[in-house]
Write a structure and sequence with these properties.
With 452 residues, the protein is α/β, with parallel strands linked by helices. It has a single domain, classed as TIM Barrel (Alpha-Beta Barrel), CATH 3.20.20. Helices cover 44% and strands 14% of the residues. The chain contains 15 helices and 14 strands. Strands 1-2-3-8-9-10-11-12 form an 8-stranded parallel beta barrel, surrounded by 5 helices. Helix 2 links the parallel strand 1 and strand 2. Helix 5 crosses helix 6, helix 11 packs across helix 13 and helix 14 packs parallel to helix 15. The longest helix is centred in the last third of the chain and has 32 residues. It starts with 5 loop residues before the first helix and ends with a helix.
Length: 452
């Protein structure tokens, strides 16, 4: 993620962003791949599958000249117990309600493990990377902390602890990073996401309440069938609802940048912004809060409205034609520029207000096909997908990111693409293509690297 235009040039100078020697790479949670190790500058990987797996990743990285950001979130945090979730909320009618559905133990909210466990869990990983420690660029604590209920205070506390653990083990100058979900560090942005998430909860709960009441008024001959259908709905909602239901009310919306970090990063994928109801007002807030010209077209625009202007998000037969693709490209370019430049502007402002003088900026951008499939108007993916057209849309998104990264004064030090591998996305029951199956996207990313 790099550069914001004339205004960003001044921002980078005024706020003292730290110069860095890495640039373009991949957010590849499962690990380094030989296919990209020697062609990009950097990769972020998760501390999963044990120390031996990480040791091998660092060996490959060191031999290839690749820098690694190690995301230790899966190691030092755990899902929040369902019994600890906030379940009361202010409904859309102003009343106070309790969530109708019990919390799921598979929720995305996170809590750090104990300090002693953090030390214990980190030690074998520190030993594993020691032979190739030169490949380590930074460590990240937990993904999208505010969205997932981790407070600013907790982040500061654990950052200090992790820094001391690394220093004690021979890493006195370790860089520590944090990845925000969009502009969740901005109070108004996070409040809008919280409000939209709670509206989702209220919609589900209100339907459950009204349907239960309706069934009770039916004749016995009709009630049995209606109750069976309602029970089936409850089973589906209980087991397959969006994690937004549990997240709602548990988002940390106090704002601010926690102290003690060297790299400030964010992601705001096109798929998230377009399809996650929690971001219904995200672009409108970015337009209002950032005040940059690139966001002027998104003032007071809801995501559901913008989504309806894209040809691949319509119900019915697939639309075709160069003019439609050109229109989509133009709209998605404006969408990207506002999304990323607006968030960078707010990040710079919040960093200054939080007392930062030096830091590196990282943007995680989308290179998967998640947001570029053919969708029905309600956001559900179509069964048949035009593979070549979807890949072309991904390439266009990659090119948008690279253009912004290379703009003089963009303010972006690191631009990472998510993701490299093809993956099966259980949330939409579809195989999602990473750039591994998209040679044109790989070529564009590699060409943007400082190695080329």
């Amino acid at each position: 993620m790099r550069r914001v235009l004339g205004i960003a040039t001044a921002i980078g100078c005024l706020f003292g962003q730290t110069a860095s020697n890495a640039g373009v790479g991949y957010f590849s949670p499962s690990g380094v791949r030989a296919e990209f190790a020697a062609t990009v500058d950097m990769a972020t990987i998760n501390a999963i599958d044990g120390p031996a797996h990480i040791a091998e990743n660092f060996r490959v990285a060191a031999e290839s000249g690749l820098k690694i950001n190690l995301d230790i979130g899966p190691l030092i945090s755990k899902p929040r117990p369902a019994g600890n979730l906030v379940t009361s909320y202010a409904a859309q009618d102003g009343s106070r309600k309790e969530k109708a559905l019990p919390g799921m133990n598979t929720n995305k909210l996170r809590d750090f493990v104990s300090d002693d466990q953090i030390r214990e869990f980190l030690k074998p990983y520190l030993d594993a990377i020691a032979p190739h420690k030169s490949a380590l660029y930074s460590v990240f604590l937990v993904d999208e902390p505010y969205l997932n209920g981790v407070s600013k205070t907790e982040l500061q506390r654990v950052a200090s602890l992790v820094r001391s653990v690394f220093a004690e083990n021979g890493y006195p100058e370790i860089k520590i990073g944090v990845i925000f979900a969009g502009a969740m560090f901005n109070k108004r942005f996070s409040a809008a996401a919280q409000k939209a998430a709670l509206a989702y909860v209220d919609t589900i709960d209100s339907y459950a309440q009204s349907e239960q009441a309706r069934i009770e008024t039916l004749p016995r001959s009709e009630a049995k069938t209606a109750r069976a259908e309602f029970d089936k709905w409850k089973e589906v909602i209980n087991n397959f609802r969006l994690t937004t239901y549990d997240t709602a009310g548990n988002i940390y919306d106090g704002g601010g940048i926690p102290a003690g970090f060297d790299i400030l990063a964010f992601d705001l994928y096109v798929s998230t912004a377009l399809l996650d109801g929690a971001y219904e007002d995200a672009m409108s807030v970015l337009a209002s809060e950032s005040g940059i010209p690139e966001c002027a077209d998104f003032a007071n625009v809801k995501m559901s409205k913008f989504r309806s202007t894209l040809s691949f998000m319509q119900s019915g037969p697939m639309s075709a034609g160069d003019h439609l693709r050109d229109n989509d490209n133009e709209r998605l370019t404006r969408f990207y520029n506002c999304r990323v430049k607006g968030t960078i502007k707010l990040l710079q402002d919040e960093a200054k207000a939080s007392g930062y003088s030096k830091f590196e900026t990282m943007v995680i951008t989308e290179s998967s096909s998640n947001g570029f499939l053919e969708f029905a108007a309600d956001g559900s993916p179509e069964a048949e997908q035009p593979e070549l057209l979807v890949k072309a849309r991904v390439v266009e998104e990659v090119e948008r990111a690279i253009r912004l990264y290379k703009e003089p004064g963009s303010g972006i030090d690191h631009m990472l693409f998510f993701t490299f591998d093809d993956e099966y996305d259980k949330s939409i029951n579809l195989q999602v293509g990473g750039v591994a199956s998209n040679p044109k996207a790989i070529e564009a990313i590699s060409a943007a690297s400082d190695r080329n």
